[in-house]
Specification:
By secondary structure, this protein is an alpha+beta fold. Helices cover 51% and strands 11% of the residues. Helix 7 packs antiparallel against helix 9. The C terminus is likely disordered.
């Protein structure tokens, strides 16, 4: 056996220092890894020799990449080249578009932990419409409300949680609670930044899809990404123009739907919740029939044997106590950080959710789930943090919301979708979330935990409750990581540990 570290991420500035010391070097590119690994399938030489050969002949490696990836269609070869990007000074709305892509890694500037300044993006479409002044005045009013709310909420949290306030190590937490509730007043134009790690295949897809978006800011992000990648890896990121499929399908489908079904329904039903502090509406839109039995059948299929049809028949005929005993064998050694086996992916749920932009910002990070969303819609009302209500600042908050929505109506008429930049973190959208029980377990552990932000914590708790009602066996351990020891103890009569007592071992 021979295991070799073939490469790793290196800071671009460190590479520039090498290039200054050794001008003319061409081998400081991830293209050589793609070219070397592409040859593994047909060249008998060891992989490390193939890498050395690619580094010696970079132009030949580039020609090889072009032929193998784009002519022969082996696009997975491009996945061996990985890039890191700093995306700075882009809007929250644009970040949502970037983070739709699954097979990438993101770390985003948090509006929960960092006190916001007054930085925001003014969309080109709104400037062209001659409404830049209205937009700026509205955003400045939102930012002023944010700073005032933070100033008022911070001492309120310290006063309401004296035990935490007594220990300086918890001050960061209390301060963060004030920031995260105050941020409901700020707009989606607020500047943020993310660190992005992405392989070349997915980078090309991202650039092509961004090029098809109507937003000038989002298209510009795609152009910058394409330009930066082309400088160091021209052979593996090539097709970056907008495709008709990405650019035209959504609008064509929407027009056909309007022709077939009539005008689009309004969100008037959401207005009744406008003044409340309700974080979300949760409605189960679908679930796998016989989810407990299908998960159990998948578990049997992997360990007991037989065809899946046989395993499902056996799972159906077992009495509930026997089914539960089998599930307990799966769960008994599980710690809060463990996920159930992949067999749990055979039971899924679909939820229709109405969530604030603040809640959606966290929900979208669960990229293994399937998440589709409507546009933000003021007709769905807003989410008012309970702390703002408790501080008596709801009238001020709603005044800012009213001013925002008045501006939105004017901007919508003149600038179309770009009007969404002026909406706030409190505004809502409808989303459709489909996920299997394994992914829901991960979501619940993280988002239902006491340390999670209150808006998504409430959402996760409602989804978990709905899942337990539908799949009482497979979902019995759904909870936040803080509650896991108690939930486990209620089921097993003991705290979780890695060595169950002999009574459980013997059934």
């Amino acid at each position: 056996m021979k295991i070799v570290l073939a490469g790793y991420n290196v800071d671009r500035e460190a590479l520039d220092e090498v290039l200054r010391a050794f001008p003319g070097r061409l081998d400081l590119t991830p293209e050589t890894l793609s070219a070397a690994y592409a040859r593994i399938s047909r060249d008998p030489r060891p992989a490390d020799e193939l890498r050395r050969a690619a580094r010696r002949e970079v132009e030949k490696a580039r020609r090889s990449n072009a032929a193998i990836i784009f002519k022969m269609g082996h696009h997975s070869v491009a996945e061996h080249a990985v890039f890191n990007f700093d995306l700075m000074g882009i809007s929250r709305l644009a970040i949502e578009e970037i983070e739709k892509f699954r097979l990438c890694s993101f770390t985003e500037k948090s509006q929960r932990y960092i006190k916001l300044g007054d930085d925001y993006v003014v969309p080109e479409e709104i400037v062209r419409a001659g409404l830049g002044d209205l937009f700026v005045e509205t955003v400045r009013a939102q930012n002023a409300a944010y700073h005032d709310l933070y100033r008022i909420l911070r001492p309120l949290f310290f006063e309401n949680h004296p035990a935490l306030a007594a220990d300086p190590k918890h001050h960061f937490l209390l301060d963060g609670w004030a920031k995260e509730d105050a941020r409901y007043a700020v707009g989606l134009a607020t500047e943020g930044q993310i660190g992005l790690t992405i392989n070349a295949r997915n980078l090309e897809l991202m650039i092509r899809r961004l090029a098809a978006k109507p937003s000038a800011e989002i298209r510009a992000i795609g152009l910058h990404l394409a330009g930066e990648a082309a400088r160091v890896a021209p052979s593996i990121v090539r097709y970056t123009e907008a495709a008709a499929y990405d650019a035209e399908t959504e609008e064509a489908f929407r027009d056909e739907a309007v022709e077939s079904l009539g005008s689009r329904p309004s969100a008037a039903a959401g207005r009744s919740r406008r003044s409340g502090s309700v974080s979300s509406a949760v409605r189960m839109a679908g679930a796998t029939p016989e989810g407990d039995e299908r998960v159990l059948a998948a578990l049997l299929h992997a360990s007991w044997g037989g065809s899946y049809a046989r395993c499902l028949r056996e799972a159906r005929r077992l009495p509930v106590r026997k089914k539960k005993a089998l599930f307990l064998r799966v769960f008994e050694r599980m710690e809060f950080y463990d996920l159930p086996p992949r067999a749990f992916e055979h039971a899924g749920l679909t939820f229709e959710l109405t969530v604030s932009a603040s809640c959606y910002a966290q929900l979208k990070r669960h990229r293994m789930a399937t998440l589709t969303a409507q546009a933000y819609d003021p007709g769905l009302g807003v989410t008012v943090p309970p702390s703002i209500e408790a501080a008596g600042e709801a009238p001020r908050f709603r005044d800012v919301i009213g001013r925002t929505e008045a501006a939105y109506r004017i901007l919508k008429e003149a600038a179309g979708p770009a009007a969404a930049y002026v909406l706030t973190n409190a505004h809502r959208r409808r989303v459709l979330l489909a996920l299997n029980l394994r992914e829901l377990t991960h979501l619940a552990r993280l988002r239902e935990d006491a340390s999670a932000q209150w808006d998504i914590r409430r959402l996760a708790a409602e989804m978990s409750a709905a899942a337990r009602a539908r799949f009482p066996l497979a979902a019995m351990l759904l909870c936040g990581k803080d509650a896991y020891p108690d939930v486990y103890a209620k089921i097993f009569g003991r705290p979780p540990d890695k060595t169950p007592p002999s009574s459980l071992k013997n059934g």
